[in-house]
């Protein structure tokens, strides 16, 4: 059955969004809608222009018998600035203060609209880099890793604080917590990471950097490569951090005085991704 162009455009856009960074052949769309490849090419041109105009991604068309279209979601500079501003506004709330200079973020991490922005921001940072796996540690970083992995169309792996029998053989490392200066252990199943894999590490909050440093050590144990580290929020710390070159979406100053206050501002994401003019 032949499908009208307006219906094709809606369905094609939905399909491409559901399959990001995946090559979809013109033949597939042609058979799906009962339309000529020339008509499909014209539809893709409209979709490409729309995504480009709204700064929501890049649609690449690849010619040839084995060609097709690939949609890569990411934020333009303007959209990224707005998304960061929205996150800062949400975090900038004195009631989020927690002892030890931490900030309550669980409610934000549980919101689909926030995860949408965070996931696409992280995907934007690594849009032109070769990434195989997104890694996080169990607890609050899991939804963030899942959101980023969805937009990057890559698997995500979860580092455990203790092994589960269902994980099979594991690799473990000891690391020093950057905030409480205690030795802890983290483990990862041998089946989840291959030698030479390119890994992006994400987490919810950076303070001393011990957890991120531990994941970096674990990546080395697998002979894999660290591409970068990104966190939702970066707090202040009195000592030297255990990691360098970590990207933060939001920076938070939490003051524990007579009046417990939180002051949030943009992190170093814009400078890292779009250059120092930000």
Automatic annotation (TrEMBL):
Domain Phosphoribosyltransferase: 116-253
Gene3D superfamilies: 3.40.50.2020, Winged helix-like DNA-binding domain superfamily/Winged helix DNA-binding domain (1.10.10.10)
Keyword annotations: DNA-binding, Transcription, Transcription regulation
Oxidoreductase as UniProt keyword: no
Cell inner membrane keyword on record: no
Domain Bacterial purine repressor N-terminal: 4-73
CDD domains in the cross-refs: PRTases_typeI
A Pfam family that the UniProt record links to this protein: Pribosyltran
Family: Belongs to the purine/pyrimidine phosphoribosyltransferase family. PurR subfamily.
Subunit structure and binding partners: Homodimer.
Protein's name according to its UniProt entry: Pur operon repressor
Organism: Limosilactobacillus panis
